[in-house]
Every structure is written in structure tokens, then in C-alpha cells.
Amino acid sequence: MSTVLEQIEQQIAKLSTKAVKKNTGNIRTIADGVAKIDGLSDVMYNEMVAFPGGAIGIALNLEESEVGCVILGDVSQLKEGDEVQTTGKLLSVPVGKALLGRVVDALGNPADGKGPIDSKETYPVERIAPGIMARKSVNQPLFTGIMAIDSMIPIGRGQRELIIGDRGTGKTTIAIDTIINQAKINKVGLASGDAKFRPVYSIYVAIGQKSSNVVRTVAALEAAGALEFTVIVAATAADNPANQYIAPYSGAAIGEWFMENGMDALIVYDDLSKHAVAYRQISLILKRPSGREAYPGDVFYLHSRLLERAARLDGKGSLTALPIIETLAGDVSAYIPTNVISITDGQIFLETDLFNQGIRPAVSVGLSVSRVGSSAQIKATKQVGGKLKGELAQFRELAAFAQFGSDLDAKTKAQLDRGARIVELFKQPAFSPSPIELQVSVLFAMQKGFFDPIDAKKVVVAAANMKNFFTTRKDALLTEIRTKAALDKDLEAKLQAACDEWKSGYTA
Amino acid sequence: MAAAAKQIQLLARQLFKLSVVDGVVSPDRVAGVLQYIEKSAPAHSVLALKAYRRLIATELAKCEALVEHAGAVTAPALGAIATSMTKKYGRTITTTTRANPKLLAGLRVRVGDDIYESSVSSQLATLSVSV
Q1: Residue B115: which of A8, A22, A65 has the nearest Cβ?
Q2: pTM over 0.80
């Protein structure tokens, strides 16, 4: 009892008796999560403003006679005339490894019912992106586990690669596959005890999505054992636009902590179309001048300042960004898609037609590109898949011509057959990323013509069988490919022998 | 509608500028402005007057220190507050008092948007947050 009283007395003694200065204002109007405030003459741009009842606002519009604030949190208790005060702080979120395996809201508060997050540090939500001198070129691969992407559109650590496509074409699936693959690689790498191994931690930011979708994503990650390496920042469709607007910046701050502390991180923004819509809503309520499609003039800066925060830092870690954009009827030339395409270092374009034909992931080889190119690929992948993109492009062209005539020369027919098999080989079920060594083995078999005698429609089954064969019986060979990361003559001979062994035992 | 609102704000600001002499609101000028409004009756005069009132009230609040207190405040204390605030803000600040038992003990001084508080209630509030 006396100890408790002593504690309180100590706390009272600690409290300063000096007068405390506060800068205050009063709510003039409040609507849709945005408040117009009289007063607050000392407020700074982007400063946190304290509202009654614990709600927090961010000062976004500093005008001559009023301040426009977006409110994060519950606005139902706020009313006209309520007193608000400045805090002198920028909006910050908790960061660190304590967030791994957790679902948090846009402010970093736990949203999964697993109790408080024991985080020691906070990072400001809005930060200036790393400068030119601090950066290093992107040349370390980040494997997605999706064969079509790793072999033709390689992604490097620190890159920004856009995933773009219509609704229901598998954009989120690619992102989730990539997160799952990082977890798989992390587990293998950490178990190997290799001191040089650098795990990749993932951050998935859900913006304006249905809560049920977020639950499904969390369940998929948990089932794959990837949640322990992942932080989920959720600002669902039920959250107010201010939370949806701030969520990707919060996610970026969480990712930056890993990058600044010498670790590698991957961040998925799902999706930036809804983010732009949330920002448009806020801007219109704040009465900012609107431009094309009613978006405010700074909608480009909205995304450029976010995506520029992804980088590979010299002497530190990296932050790789996979923003997602949803198109309407495949129109990549719309306002927001063109903006984000121009900011990022490449895009993975998913086509509805391919998806409906059963080609999944529905990656359009012609429209997809990675501007980092082969510098973010291991040598083994270059050796077996260097010509794949060209071969597929030729196949598409020839396939279009072949529709008009039946007489084809042998060379053209061979190219068509090879192309059809590559397309089949790249089919991959959702949430089952392949390790890079397995991809190399299968692509080697394709390059050496092991799939040529197999009917094109049965290539998927044959490839699955081959993967199973390599995983269960050639583990040592796969480990050698993974560690060497290049195919020398010895490895090629071993792969050839393994493929021969598979072929002798496989019946279509 | 947006254009009208802009015009109202512009008119209110012009009237406000006319009402200030050497950084201080002049009662004579305010009376003159009110007479002008009554005579000319500009469009949206009620809204313009409301906007004008807000600007004048904000300006007047900057020149007045509202001292809320729980318990008695002596005249020398008020004088010291007025002198200190005048020095701090670089303009003549007068004091007015208002009893506020919710403070429990101590003072709260409001000048414009700024509040200086040294009261038991605020310290208890800080304590409740920190415990």
C-alpha cells in the first residue's frame, strides 16, 4: 500500500509546476473524417493534432483563417466547437521486429486481438526518401517463386515493380506468393546457419480492401508459415479515408526500419488505385483544386514520394516495393496507372484473357518488363532462361500468323510447339512458389528438350512430376545449384543425368 | 456557391483591414464599417458580417488575456500577467478574469489561441495519462 503511495508521490514530484503552453483551436466544421479548425496559429504542416477523446488528426491544409485536418480514429464523438490542440510532433508509428506476425492498423495499433505490441522505437510516417549518394545499384535478386517472373521479369532487392491488371486477374496472389517465398527462403537460410544469409521481412499493406479479403490473406500467410516474417498493415474499406491515405506511409516507415538497420524488407501496397481514390476524397472535402478525373494536382507526388522510399542503401539494407494497381478493362493508359508505371522500375501486367484461358499467373510477357533486367538474376537462371522472353514473344507472333494458314514449315512448327510448352510450363497454382533451384532444373529440362516428346496439354502434370522427383530424390543437387548459383560443366552433367533418370521413369 | 463564399471572405477581410489601426481594432472604425454595411447592404451581408465578426473576435482575443482562476487572484498578480504577456507578444494586452472552480487550484491564461496553464486539474490530468 505504502509503496503504491510512494510511487504516486514520486510521480507528483516529477511533474513540473511550471506553466504549460498549449496552442489550441476549435472545430468549425467536421465531415467525412475531415475537420476545419479555427485557431491553431502555431500548427505545422503534417503535425499531429490532439482531438478530444483521444482521436488524432493531421494538419494538411494551413490556410489564412483555418486549418484543415484529417482525423484518424473514431470521429463519432467529435462535434462543432470542441477544443483541439497542437502536439508539436509528427505522426509516428511503432517499428521493429516486435511487429512481425501482427496485424496493425494505419497508426500501428494492434488489430488482431493478440495484445499490445512491445515496440521500443517509432518512426515518422512521412519521411524524405534516401538521397542519391546513400543509394546503391540494385543487383541482388529477390525471388518471387513464380517461374514466369523470376526467369523473364526478375526483381531485385530495392526495386519498385508494379503489379497491374484488371480485377480478379491474380495481382494479390502474386504478391502473397512472393511473401510466402521469402518466408520459405528465410527458413532454409536461417536453418543453414550461413552467416552471410540476409532474410527478407515482408510488409503487406491492405488499402481500402474488404475485411474478408484481409482475413483470407492473413489465413493464407499463416497456413504457409509466412506470417512470422510478415507485418500486415490494414486500412480496410470500413476505415475512414484518412486511415486509408496514411496506411501505405505507415507501412513504408515499418519497412524503413528494417532497411536502416541493415536488413532487407519487401513491401506490398495493395492497392494504390484505392489509395488515390481515398486521397481524392480527402482533397475534395478539403476543397483543394481538382484536376484530371477530379484527382488533386499532387496525386503524382502522392505516389512518387511513397515509392521513392524503396531503395537499396549503401552499407545498410534494402526495401523492395511491389505496388498494385487495378485497371479498368485493361486500360494501362488511364491517369493513375500511367503515373505509377512512370515511377516504378518495371511492371508485371496481368491479362484477363490469359487468366480466362487458364494461363495462371496471367502474366503478359509482351507488356511486362523489369528495368533492372538481368543484373538482378543469378547466373544459373540467365543460363537456362536468358532466351525465354524472346522465344515466347516469337511464339505469340507466330501463333497469330498460324491462325491464318495451315501449311507451316518444320522450323515454325518447332517454334510453336516449344512456345506452347513454355506457356504450359509457366502455369503455377496459387500459393505454391517454387524455389529458384527447382526453377533452374525445370527450365534446364525445357532447354534440353525433355518436354518436347510430351503432349503440350500434359506438360503441367509432367513438370509437377519432375519437381516432385527433384525435391524428393535430388535434394543434394538442388542444394548445390542453390549454393553455386551458376551452372558449371559438372553441374550441367549432373542435371542432364538427373533429367535422364526422370525421363526413364516417367510415363505420360 | 464556392465563388460567393470566396467573395464573402474577401469582403469580410477588407472590412477587417479597415477596422484595424496600428495593429489594434478601433471601435470607431468598427462602427463605421457597420454603418456602411447597413447603408449599402451588400449581397450576403449576414454571412459577410458573421465572417467579419469572427475576424474581429480573433483579433480582440489576441489583445486580451483571459485569466481563469480557482481561488482569489490579486491585482498585482493580474498586473504582472499583463506586463509579462505584453512583453512576450509585443502588443498591449489587458486582462479579464473568470472564476473556474474546475481548475481546483491555480491559473489558466488564454491569449488568442495560446493557453498557459498551471493548475492542479491539468497536473492531475497529466498524472492520469502517465500512470
Answers
A1: A22
A2: yes
